[in-house]
Amino acid sequence: MTEEAPALEIRDVSHWFGDFRVLNHIDLRIEAGQIVALVGPSGCGKSTLLKAILGTHPPREGEVLVGGEPVRGPNRNVGIVYQNYSLFDFLTAEKNVAFGLKLDQSSLPFRIFQYPRWRKLRAEQMRMAREYLRRVHLAEACGKYPHELSGGMRQRVAIAQALILKPKIVLLDEPFGALDEATRESLQLMLLHFYQENLQAIQRGEVPEYTILIVTHELNEAIYVANRVVGLSRYHDQAEKGAMIVYDRPCPIFSPDDPRDVAQFIEQREELRRAVFDPNYIKHHQKYVTFWKELADQESSVGNPAIDNAN
Amino acid sequence: MIRHPIPKWLFYTLAAAGVAAAVAVYAGLSVRQTWINPTQNILPGIKGFVVGWEEITKPRGNERRPKPSWLSTDVRATYWRLLLGLSCGTIASVLIGVAMGAYEAAEAFFSPVINFMAKIPPTAMLAVYMVVFGTKLEMYIALVGFGIFFTMVQSIFQAVKKDVAADHIDKAYTLGASECEVLVEVVWQQILPRVIETVRVHLGPAMVFLIAAEMLFASEGFGYTIRQQSRLINMNVVYIYLAILGLTGLCFDWLLIRLRRWLCPWFGD
């Protein structure tokens, strides 16, 4: 694998609204192929951080880099999936998925003045969109409009729509919050499949395709689908300055075929709850920020357990 | 019970009954009026309408200089004015409405004038249009175009503000859209059914302004003929003209609904 800039790098980002400090000197680096869960109490600044990464609300201080490039506004390097799906009502599922390809690979004048060439390119884009819909198990829904799909189906379309452009990072903003338990679980499995594909790509020496930052309020979900959990909270020794990253640790890696054994992550869930959500548990804000150190220790002692697991 | 559905056959039977009731009321009044005054033409019967139809469809002029019938002249004049006025008004309001909904600077610049002008009845502006544009085609286009423009801009502005979510715009950028593409591929596509609905709603007022202007200034057109014939109490002609206006209005309405269903199948009914 070639040496690349991190998929996402947040450098010393702070943000405030008037006198209210929301984010306080946030530093975060996410490498390609990581699936990271971001958790935190309501109102702690998760959405503000997400908007800073997306580029819609730049931070007051600090810098956000995606693929080594500073974020100046929403762009094709950062994909987004919202809780309310936000599919384009006027496009069918396959056209929604192909929409990014259309915008990314052709210009308006090209589509108008070079229509025959555009038709040819379009056919290829639609084929690719159908392939992505097949990957998210929605091959049968290609021609349906969003209002004809269930919540879970819409969210799958939204994920395929974001992934098809192969952005440097995809942000999932509480993507499964409005879904029933069964649909939620099937989408969680889909993320585990993506992680497996990442591991296989790393084994082949390729850049992994899926780098995902998922915001969720479900701690079990965070530990289950991600290989790293980041906690953002104001409950630390510098609370008055705003929220900081108070938890950053690896998670157990699950294969989609493994039974969903909740017992495996009870201990980490309790640690996470205490470190991020307990206002009475005041600690040094760096106490649980140990992801990169633990990863280095792990790799030096037993090789890469994630890749072993994929085998 | 409120909003309780009824069977289709009952729905259509009641619709037909409504039409039949209106015709029956007219027929009753007409018969009564004819009994009082056998030569009356205020509420003509079938014979009167046949005469009226022949009158308006009869070719005019003479063998050396033939002229088209009243109906053909009036249809051409009125609907040409309506089409041009409606097209100009719609195109201008889409451009300004979308600009106002998309850019706050445009909203700040246009909204005071638009909101003020929307409160002035367009027919009251007739005098201004007459002075500025004369009494030719341009005046009718201005009357219909400006008549619908201000309220149409407000509707389209609201559609862009309310129907196009900020998430959709941000997402389009994350999918590689340029600003122009966001306007054309997202904003326009999302508001298109609202634009068609707005045109439908404004068809009626546009017709009101046009007929009023034709009654005052025109030498041909529906408004002109209705005014002339009502002065002569040729109500058999007037009612036929009114019926044609109603039917063509329904046809336009139906065509716009079909257009919306064809272009925006996702919008539903």
What's this model, at a glance?
With 311 residues, chain A is of the alpha/beta class. In chain A, 39% of the residues lie in helices and 20% in strands.
Largest interface: A-B, 30 and 25 residues
Strand residues, percent of chain A: 15-25%
Q: Which of globular, elongated, flat, extended, rod-shaped describes the shape of chain A?
A: globular
What Rg of chain A do the Cα atoms give? 20 Å
Low-confidence blocks of residues of chain A: 305-311
Outline type of chain B: globular
Task: Give the SSE layout.
The complex is a heterodimer of chains A (311) and B (269).
Chain A: E1 8-17, E2 20-30, E3 35-39, H1 46-54, E4 61-66, E5 69-70, E6 78-81, H2 93-105, H3 108-113, H4 115-135, H5 151-163, E7 169-173, H6 181-203, E8 212-215, H7 219-225, E9 228-233, E10 244-250, H8 266-277, E11 288-289, H9 291-302, H10 305-310
Parallel strand pairs in A: 3-8, 3-9, 6-7, 7-8, 10-11
Antiparallel strand pairs in A: 1-2, 1-4, 4-5, 9-10
Chain B: H1 8-36, H2 46-57, E1 60-61, E2 66-67, H3 70-102, H4 104-118, H5 126-133, H6 137-163, H7 166-174, H8 179-217, H9 222-231, H10 235-263
Antiparallel strand pairs in B: 1-2
Give a verbal description of the structure.
The complex is a heterodimer of chains A (311) and B (269). Chain A has two domains: 8-77 and 169-310, P-loop containing nucleotide triphosphate hydrolases (Rossmann fold); 87-166, no CATH class. Chain A is built from ten helices and eleven strands. With 311 residues, chain A is α/β, with parallel strands linked by helices. Chain A starts with 7 loop residues before the first strand and ends with a helix. A seven-stranded mixed β-sheet of chain A has the order 6-7-8-3-9-10-11, sandwiched between helices. A four-stranded antiparallel β-sheet of chain A has the order 2-1-4-5, covered by helices on one side. Chain A is globular, with a radius of gyration of 20 Å. In chain A, 39% of the residues lie in helices and 20% in strands. The longest helix of chain A is centred in the middle third of the chain and has 23 residues, at 181-203. The two termini of chain B are 23 Å apart. Helices cover 78% and strands 1% of the residues of chain B. Chain B is globular. The model of chain B has no long low-confidence stretch (mean pLDDT 93). The longest helix of chain B has 39 residues, at 179-217. Chain B folds into two domains: 8-40; 66-267, MetI-like fold (Orthogonal Bundle), CATH 1.10.3720.10. Chain B has a two-stranded antiparallel ribbon with strand order 1-2. With 269 residues, chain B is mainly α. Chains A and B meet through strand 6 and helix 2 of A and helix 7 and helix 8 of B.
